[in-house]
Amino acid sequence: MLHLCYILGVVKQVATIHARIDEKTKAESESILRKIGMTPTEAVRLLYRQIALRKEFPLELRVPNNLTAQTLDLSDRGEEIESFDSLESMVASWKE
Fold it and tell me: What is the pLDDT, as a whole number, of residue 3?
């Protein structure tokens, strides 16, 4: 859908985008956007502008391998998490 928009004395065509997203993701994302002073419209506009400028998606998207996916699932559930007092003690645990 295209609209005509009057901005600073210039008439521009403006397109409208409609998207569906689950409520939880919407609420979590908008909370973060508010913290950085950005509206959802500004975030979408920024994403689209970066895609147009770069001629590619501006974020690196990867599918995790099985081990990484399992580790992330465990971490999300708070399971099998280790804490260390220092970097050295963490590195030492890898040798065990």
Answer: 53
